[in-house]
Amino acid sequence: MRHGMGRWYGAAGHRAGFWITAFTFLISMAFTTVPTPLWAIYQREDGFSTAMVTVAFAAYAVGVVVSLFLAGHLSDRFGRRRVLLPAVVIEVAAAVMFLTSTSLGVLIVARAVTGLGIGMVTATATAYLTDLHTAARPRAGRGRADLVATAANMGGFAVGSLASGVLAQYVDGPLRTPYLVFLGLLVVAAAGVVLVPETVSPVAPRPPYRPQRVSVPAEHRPAYFAAASAAFTTFAVLGLFTSLAPGFVANTLHHPSRALAGLVTFLVFAAAAATQIVLRRLALRPQLATGLVLMCTGLATLTAAVWFPSLAAFLIGGILAGAGAGVLFKATVSRVLTLATPEHRGEALAGLFLTAYVGLAVPILALGLATHYVAIRTALLAFAAALVLICAAVSRRLLR
């Protein structure tokens, strides 16, 4: 494809393409947390209940799960760029939808569309970064690619919530300006993806389409499912801070600032990204153990902060839980990449993200619904206890 306009495709080298892809991954993930500090405004201006907030949030996770199941693995067949570029365009469409209306129906659809794009972005961008890094530095290990991929994932969540909270607090049009800013960034990212060289040749003859399946050697499946269970718990923790946590801060802890709501989420995801960097030289097993301990400790602290209201304890618990979730998720991605064969890397990662995003949707939706029947602190206690039990159940297999 080197004639006409096609000569521009893949014009960047593998090294530049690696960083363009990392930027695209970061901005795409950041866009998903733009609504986080805005939920309180939607509730006040449009009368949304807490349950409706969790439904809108769950619509995103459902979109991700559907996308991962139907399209998250297709980059292994059709090429990384050929999947990543349409995924970013879908995110652009979602941003436009957020700008058209603040009604609940439009928000739910926009969140679902966001999820459809992100389901394609996560597995594709992670595998793309690994491919580009290997092509640019064939003698180097995979460590940098793993680190950048997971840092872009968690760091994107942090950047999106903080930027949105600050814009909502200090700039006119709090329900429009954040989306306008990220619409522009997504357009820039899409233009950049066009320049990234393709790393996968389409399969010929083209095989019949099939939905997602987990492709891991049989002898590694117990370890794979243990890693997937750990990813489930990490995303359940992180989902708490992109859905209901700002409400806890505003209502239970009585701190209604939009900027503070964005800052809380930023600190959690910044801790997740920072821990990945600080502990990157640890062997895989110590990373997994550290992640489990930090996340469980953070959940306990967070629960105590709601039972005995304390903003400081809530922030400390959030930082600990976020740090643990970050390093644990990075370690699970590394574990899955180690277990999967190169030709099935996209499928294995899509399966991991599929399980993770089920964790993002189901526990949070259950928590939101539970608040209608029991006190918030009781619902949070049950939520935290369930996640700790899952971690305990898989820890032996995970650390083996």
Number of helical segments with 4 or more residues: 15
Helix content: over 70%
What name is given to the CATH topology? Growth Hormone, Chain: A
Shape verdict:
globular
Structurally, the number of domains stands at 1
Fourth-level CATH superfamily: MFS general substrate transporter like domains
Low-confidence spans: pLDDT under 50, at least 5 residues?
1-6
Assembly category? single chain
* Gap from first CA to last CA: 47 Å
Sheet/helix structural class? mainly alpha
DSSP summary, beta strand count: 0
Q: What is the class in the CATH system?
A: Mainly Alpha
Q: Please give the largest β-sheet.
A: none
Rg over CA atoms: 20 Å
Q: Helix and strand succession?
A: HHHHHHHHHHHHHHH
Write the layout of secondary structure elements.
Elements: H1 14-32, H2 39-46, H3 50-70, H4 75-78, H5 80-100, H6 104-136, H7 143-170, H8 177-194, H9 221-242, H10 245-252, H11 258-278, H12 284-307, H13 311-339, H14 345-370, H15 376-399
Domain Major facilitator superfamily (MFS) profile: 16-400
Keywords: Cell membrane, Membrane, Transmembrane, Transmembrane helix, Transport
InterPro entries: MFS, MFS_dom, MFS_trans_sf, MFS_Transporters
